[in-house]
Amino acid sequence: MEEEKNLLDTKKQNILENSKNSILANKISVKKNDKFYALLFLGPSLLLLTLFIFYPMLKTLYLSLFLTNGNGQNTVFVGLQNYISLLTSSTYLASLLATFVYVFSISVLTILLGLLLASTASKNIRGSGFFRTIFSSTMGVSISVSAIFWLFIFNPSIGILNQIAAFLHLPILNWSTDPNLAMISVIISTVWMNLGFAFLVLFSAFESLPLSLYEETAIEGASPAYRFMHVTIPLISPTLFFVSIITLIESFKSFGLIDLMTAGGPNNATNLLVYQIYQDAFLNGNYSQASAESVILTIIIAVLTFVQFKYLEKKVNY
Length: 318
What we know:
75% of the residues lie in helices and 2% in strands. By secondary structure, it is an all-alpha fold. The longest helix has 62 residues, at 2-63. The termini are far apart.
């Protein structure tokens, strides 16, 4: 009897060990399959990202530490000298200041006007559908068409602004040749181009607001201004935060309108960082300096985006 009992226990232990080994083998097989499918589906994307995103970024950083010839080949290692030359150059610092003025103006005006238009269009009044189409129509306008449109408006001789000024006996302004007015004209044109996107996104946020909350606050006697600041803004804050991030980044990358309207002039008044990079790389053939400018611009955008996430996201109500 004792031998039969021992034999039975041995069989049970063998069965348990075989079962554990089988489960372990299945887990290893599943992990191998997961790695295979992850590599199969993510591999092409990672390859494309490496070729077209990570390699150019590393190459730009590498070139910024050298002097280059006209073909973009590095010749002499200079370390951080390109960065020191840029940050001590009055021309580059003026371009940096102009970029901050431009980005700040574009971000503030686009968000404020987008809020105003979205709030107005969300009212249930006659003709609101027509105005929604008009407000969002700039999204369908190309940069070249927009540049021609605004160049005609700002033209000193035949522009509609100066014609109105002449009719009202006001001073004629040289929108495209005066350095201060050239920056203002570019800012107005860019805000007009960006407004369609900001309006459309903010309008969708206004449409999702609960009407019952407004009715309750109206019954309690809250004024429209109080409801807007303490009900509407907190409720749409995630969308507002998204629009502010996108507007800031897109403002730093503005190129087309500046190239077509002012080409960085007059007197470098609209020579923003992106346009400076274009001039140094593709017109002057100074790839090392253009690479250093690109690295600085990337750091500025990354720092400002981090600051926005760090401080503004705390005020967002998800």
